[in-house]
Design a protein that fits this description.
This protein is α+β, with helices and mostly antiparallel strands. The protein has a domain of 26 residues. It has 2 helices and 6 strands, in the order βαββαβββ. The strands form 2 sheets. Strands 2-3-1-6 form a 4-stranded antiparallel sheet, covered by helices on one side. It is globular and about 35 Å long. It starts with a strand and ends with a strand. The mean pLDDT is 96.
Length: 80
């Protein structure tokens, strides 16, 4: 299941996001979206977990949680 994480601190790293979600189950992909001009984080990213049960548990526990002084929002990513 692919999830989107919004409102991340610009200082949060891809590794930190992966570690955060790995507490709830296996993480198969983690992509922090970067600004092409500045090279800095755009403040959101995507995480994929193969087990939907683990993903839903992660959403339940991480949505609206304060990480690095930012209240993050986590939900299922909509497919394009």
């Amino acid at each position: 299941m692919k999830m989107i994480i919004r409102n991340l601190s610009r200082d949060t790293t891809e590794s930190e996001i992966k570690d955060l979600f790995a507490k709830f189950g296996e993480v198969t992909a983690c992509d922090l979206v970067m600004d092409k001009q500045t090279g800095g984080s755009k403040g959101f990213g995507f995480v994929e977990m193969p087990n939907p049960k683990h993903a839903k548990y992660a959403i339940k526990n991480l949505n609206d949680k304060t990480i690095a002084n930012s209240r993050i929002r986590v939900k299922v990513a909509e497919e394009k």
